[in-house]
């Protein structure tokens, strides 16, 4: 058994891990990152399924810490594809010489806080232990994939893939009968692509979804030049709003106060612009008032159904029983049009529930459907899932899983009391995926770097969250969410996609700009709410 020591160990080499290595090095810390994949990218390394792309615009889904990086990188599309983002992150890793501090193909299986040494002791999948003064989790909110337990799965004679573990070499689906389980953001991206290749595609849909068109386009020379020229202006815009995106509508009107004609104009404009923000954020009341929300939802359903030729299929696809935006709004490209193809069949898994996987395929609603390939687009054990998968033990050997038995909490979503010197980038109780996550990551990493620099300067080497401050923060998180439609139906946002997981929203929904101000205030007050010590 070898044993090395570092000032800081970073878990994960995705967007957060890469940036954390860069920033922590800057303040003179020795840093090591462990990444279970064989390359950088995190989400963008694993999610190689057909059609995978980001639904935040490429110019916003970019690091902002280096203007040189922004000026030298050219995005080719409004919504970048997985391969393009993976290339970008590889470029970042090379440009900032990050690889030398990353050990690939290595999982952190266990992390125990040793109070005597004031260090984290980490057990790695490669039969080694490592010690670190500080542990920085960069595991992301969506890295612990979820596959439902369906009886008979082991008998299936065909191939099975989770979209999050799609083989890098791809899967040849020609002449294959393919089943896709799941119509979340992932399924809705993958289905149109798989339909083009498969002999026949069966989609198993349990919950019908609203889908906003991406209105994606290639970026021309002028647009690329404009993106670069407006770097500073866009950065200011991102800093000022709730989701950390540029071009965000500053002061939208309440839908219910607009007359029918004005509403329609705003609807149609938003539809033309496309993407997750234009329509959803065009009004001040659709996220809080159920009547306003219903009107918007009806518009989206009417638009979506225009694309489907068969009224019965349209009815199955668009009989939606939740308010728009109460679960994640989905951005699609040619999704509903796909059901006009002769080789695509929609199976309503509500009225015909999936009963079992059989050697020849899948049985749903009493019918056996023969399949060669089964694709699970069934999502993730979000936010707490990747952290709990690590077997983290804090002060007194307490398991993080025990602390979080009823809900995951952390002061500012950064540090969970009783787990000192462990920073969680985009942890539970922070804005995380409720904002442009790369921008939220930069804010968290910068805050952690400043905090560690402050600690060093003042002779501290131990930081924990004050339990009262953590409770108070959790209460603020709840208060902000109280009257919002967001999270009011079951989904991975509420944890209810995972059997047995405690239900609850683990996000601060008060806006990234307000969250940033709160984090700055805490730091400016000498890290009020944290307990800093020298050990
Ligand atoms: O996962 P999901 P995802 N039988 O949990 C179904 C991000 N993301 O991977 O809704 C039948 O949303 C489940 O059904 P139901 C983004 O944050 C971003 O699609 O529970 N069906 C649902 O349809 C997103 O929100 C991008 O009734 C079963 C699906 O599986 C997050 O990742 C792209 C089932 C899971 O949907 C997760 O999205 C992709 C069962 N037993 C992902 N179990 C972009 O940037 C589950 N399902 C665009």
Strand tally: 20
Beta-sheet strand percentage? Answer: 15-25%
Report the bound ligands by name, code or SMILES. 3-acetylpyridine adenine dinucleotide
Average pLDDT score: 97
Would you summarize the structure shown here?
By secondary structure, this protein is an alpha/beta fold. Helix content is 32%, strand content 17%.
Structure in words:
- The structure is a single chain.
- The protein is α/β, with parallel strands linked by helices.
- It is 32% helix and 17% strand.
- The chain has 16 helices and 20 strands.
- The strands form 5 sheets. Strands 1, 2, 3, 4, 5, 6, 17 and 18 form an 8-stranded mixed beta sheet that branches. It has a 5-stranded parallel beta sheet with strand order 7-16-8-9-12.
- Helix 1 packs parallel to helix 14 and helix 14 runs parallel beside helix 16.
- The mean pLDDT is 97.
């Amino acid at each position: 058994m070898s044993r090395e020591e570092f000032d800081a160990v970073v878990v994960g080499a995705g967007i957060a891990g890469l940036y954390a290595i860069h920033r922590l090095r800057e303040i003179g810390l020795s840093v090591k990152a462990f990444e279970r994949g064989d390359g950088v990218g995190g989400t963008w390394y694993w999610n190689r399924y057909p059609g995978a792309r980001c639904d935040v615009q490429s110019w916003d889904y970019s690091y902002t810490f280096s203007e040189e990086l922004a000026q030298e990188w050219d995005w080719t599309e409004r919504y970048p594809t997985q391969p393009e983002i993976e290339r970008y992150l590889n470029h970042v890793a090379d440009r900032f010489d990050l690889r030398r501090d990353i050990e690939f193909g290595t999982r952190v299986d266990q992390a125990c806080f040793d109070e005597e040494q004031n260090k984290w002791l980490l057990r790695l999948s490669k039969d080694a232990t490592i010690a670190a003064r500080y542990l920085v989790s960069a595991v992301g909110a969506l890295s612990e994939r979820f596959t439902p337990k369906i009886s008979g799965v082991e008998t299936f004679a065909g191939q099975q893939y989770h979209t999050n573990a799609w083989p890098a070499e791809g899967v040849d689906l020609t002449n294959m009968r393919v089943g896709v389980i799941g119509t979340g953001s992932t399924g809705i991206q993958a289905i149109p692509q798989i339909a083009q290749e498969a002999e026949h595609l069966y989609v198993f849909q349990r919950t019908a979804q609203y889908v906003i068109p991406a209105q994606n386009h290639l970026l021309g020379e002028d647009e690329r030049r404009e993106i670069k020229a407006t770097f500073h202006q866009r950065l200011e815009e991102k800093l000022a709003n709730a989701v950390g995106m540029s071009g965000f509508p500053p002061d939208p009107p309440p839908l219910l106060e607009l007359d029918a004609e004005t509403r329609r104009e705003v609807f149609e404009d938003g539809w033309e612009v496309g993407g997750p923000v234009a329509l959803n954020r065009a009004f001040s009341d659709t996220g809080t008032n159920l009547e306003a929300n219903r009107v918007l939802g009806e518009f989206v359903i009417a638009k979506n159904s225009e694309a489907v030729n068969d009224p019965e299929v349209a009815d199955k696809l668009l009989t939606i029983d939740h308010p728009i935006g109460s679960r994640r709004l989905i951005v699609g490209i040619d999704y509903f049009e796909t059901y006009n193809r002769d080789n695509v069949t929609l199976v309503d898994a509500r009225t015909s529930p999936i009963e079992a996987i059989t050697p020849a395929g899948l049985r749903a609603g009493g019918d056996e459907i023969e399949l060669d390939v089964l694709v699970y687009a069934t999502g993730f054990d979000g936010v707490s899932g990747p952290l709990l998968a690590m077997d983290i033990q804090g002060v007194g050997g307490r398991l993080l899983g025990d602390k979080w038995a009823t809900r995951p909490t952390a002061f500012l979503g950064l540090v969970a009391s009783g787990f000192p010197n462990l920073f969680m980038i985009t942890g539970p109780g922070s804005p995380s995926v409720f904002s442009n996550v790369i921008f939220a990551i930069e804010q968290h990493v910068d805050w952690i770097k400043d905090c560690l620099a402050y600690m060093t300067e003042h002779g501290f080497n131990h930081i924990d969250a004050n339990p009262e401050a953590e409770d108070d923060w959790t209460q603020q998180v709840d208060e902000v969410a109280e009257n919002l439609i967001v999270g009011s139906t079951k989904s991975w946002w509420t944890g209810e996609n995972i059997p047995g997981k405690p239900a609850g929203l683990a996000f601060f929904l008060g806006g990234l700009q307000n969250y940033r101000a709160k984090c700055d205030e805490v730091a400016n007050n000498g890290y009020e709410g944290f307990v800093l010590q020298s050990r």
